[in-house]
Amino acid sequence: VVNASDLNEMPENALYVEGSVICRLLMGTAGLQPVRQNRVIVLLNAHQDESFIYVAVNSVSAARAVFGLQCPGTLLKDPPLLMKSQYSSAGGRAGSRRGDGNLARIARQTPQRV
């Protein structure tokens, strides 16, 4: 198991997972199993400084080159998707979001690559 900083050094018998999943794996609350295909759509908030968009697009291109990420598209969201993290009343982390009303439609309309 590796994280994003190891993408260029990842051996063929390794699986890529997000950092929080590694924590759950080590705690015994999650397991790993190979998948046939993941579907990734990159959603970027519009920004006045276009260099932010270019950096994000270059990161996706690096993932394509390094481990063959199949990403059917990079979509620009305007107005932006707003997300806020906070603590719940039980002391855990929670979050809220606004501006995601059409995300399900976008996901359905984006073609899959096989």
Structure description:
The protein has 114 residues and is α+β, with helices and mostly antiparallel strands. It has 2 domains: 1-34, no CATH class; 40-114, no CATH class. The protein has 3 helices and 4 strands. The strands form 2 sheets. The protein has a two-stranded parallel ribbon. It has a two-stranded antiparallel sheet with strand order 3-4. The model has no long low-confidence stretch (mean pLDDT 76).
Descriptive tags:
3 helices, 114 residues, globular, two-stranded parallel sheet, 4 strands, single chain, 18% strand
Outline:
The chain contains three helices and four strands. By secondary structure, the chain is an alpha+beta fold. The protein is globular, with a radius of gyration of 17 Å.
Counting DSSP H or I runs of 4 or more residues, the number of helices is 3
| Percent of residues in helices | 25-40%
Low-confidence spans: pLDDT under 50, at least 5 residues? none
What gap, in angstroms, lies between the N and C termini? 24 Å
The number of strands is 4
Q: Percent of residues in beta strands?
A: 15-25%
Using only C-alpha atoms, the radius of gyration works out to 17 Å
Compute the average pLDDT: 76
Q: What is the general shape?
A: globular
